[in-house]
């Protein structure tokens, strides 16, 4: 498994972040690190994504920083150039996956069906994103769908928070969980970084309870 993905697995949680303003990037990254989560997935849902990744990358070069909601090869190039160390996409976009593999960029595409899982396996991927986790059927669906594919690990994302985080993490096939409950957009926009830090500390405490 790629070193970056191993680091994500060791941490256990990936904050999925929507940054509307690049000015909030530094304070947010600081809050996550101080809360015990030196990892972030900055989504390409806003115009501030590229600059936010660049700011965080330059200020915290050791942070496991990735780009999410990546929908095209062009976005991969922009994200990597800004300092993203891994790529996450909501679905399995063949062009994105192929470009990342060719250029040795860790990529975790989203999957929801056995067909998509088998496409990921054809690419030689070892980790995929299970998305949207809760709407698809939660942990029970994940256990059922993953059963035939013993060498694949999953990063469930979508509807995960403190109430179900440990349930996912206790499943041996789960590498880590993605979530935004500790980095909600309203908290970021309001500058409530101390609250984000507290929520992060709580999440980390829960993640340390996992036994796989």
CATH architecture assignment name: Alpha-Beta Barrel
Structural class: alpha/beta
| Biggest pleated-sheet summary | 8 strands, parallel
What pattern of helices and strands is seen along the backbone? Answer: HEHEHEHEHEHEHHEHEHH
Tally of DSSP β-strands: 8
Q: How far apart, in Å, are the first and last alpha carbons?
A: 17 Å
This entry's quaternary arrangement is single chain
How are strands sequenced across the largest beta sheet? Answer: 7-6-5-4-3-2-1-8
Residue-averaged pLDDT: 97
Low-pLDDT segments:
none
Radius of gyration from CA coordinates? 16 Å
Helix content: 40-55%
- Which fold name corresponds to the CATH topology? TIM Barrel
Number of helical stretches of at least 4 residues: 11
Shape, principal axes of CA atoms: globular
**The number of domains:** 1
**CATH-wise, what's the superfamily?**
Aldolase class I
Report the β-strand fraction as a percent range.
15-25%
By CATH reckoning, the class would read Alpha Beta
């Amino acid at each position: 498994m790629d070193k970056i993905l191993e680091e994500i697995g060791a941490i256990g949680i990936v904050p999925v972040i929507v940054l509307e303003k690049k000015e909030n990037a530094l304070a947010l990254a600081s809050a996550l690190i101080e809360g015990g989560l030196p990892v972030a997935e900055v989504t390409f849902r806003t115009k501030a994504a590229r600059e936010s990744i660049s700011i965080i990358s330059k200020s915290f070069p050791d942070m496991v920083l990735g780009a999410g909601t990546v929908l095209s090869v062009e976005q991969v190039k922009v994200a990597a150039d800004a300092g993203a160390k891994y790529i996450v996409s909501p679905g399995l976009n063949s062009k994105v996956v192929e470009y990342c593999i060719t250029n040795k960029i860790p990529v975790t595409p989203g999957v929801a069906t056995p067909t998509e899982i088998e496409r990921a396996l054809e690419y030689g991927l070892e980790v995929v994103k299970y998305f949207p986790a809760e709407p698809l059927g939660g942990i029970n669906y994940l256990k059922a769908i993953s059963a035939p594919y013993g060498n694949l690990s999953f990063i469930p994302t979508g509807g995960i928070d403190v109430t179900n985080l440990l349930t996912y993490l206790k499943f041996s096939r789960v590498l880590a969980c993605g979530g935004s409950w500790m980095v909600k957009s309203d908290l970021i926009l309001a500058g409530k970084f101390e609250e984000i830090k507290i929520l992060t500390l709580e999440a980390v405490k829960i993640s340390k309870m996992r036994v796989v």
